Amino acid sequence: MIYVLRQQQNLRIDLATAWNFFSDPANLSLITPPEMKFRILTKDTAGMYAGQMIHYRIKLMPLVGFEWLTEITHVADGVRFVDEQRTGPYAIWHHEHHFRTVAGGVEMTDVIHYKLPMGFLGNLANNLIVAPKLKKIFDYRREVLKQKFGAL
Known about the structure:
Blueprint: E1 3-11, H1 15-22, E2 39-40, E3 53-61, E4 64-76, E5 80-87, E6 92-102, E7 105-115, H2 119-149
Antiparallel strand pairs: 1-7, 2-3, 3-4, 4-5, 5-6, 6-7
């Protein structure tokens, strides 16, 4: 089964600031819960471009860490970019990041399509563990961004 997580947030920043922050992979560690011990293993992440590969290490649960390789597959400067997992914990991970100017700031929208491995067991894991964990991660992200940039 393919699952979808969608989150929208309006921030009190201009489009250039939003784009510069979110298109820099180094900022992922700032908006990821500290207990996940997020680390970028790729040495050079300057600039974003289609075809860029970014290698991470992340802890999804206590004692369960993963190396994760994503590829930036689409980039429309200032509008959207897409990262897709090449190796990692998901069978499918397709994450769209959308940005648009709104009155007083920027609306950013994350749309994630994901699938877990292991069929029925993966679906069970999604309901019990994965979906609540993703919600917690994106709730944390929402709060950090609200504190950093201000919400509309």
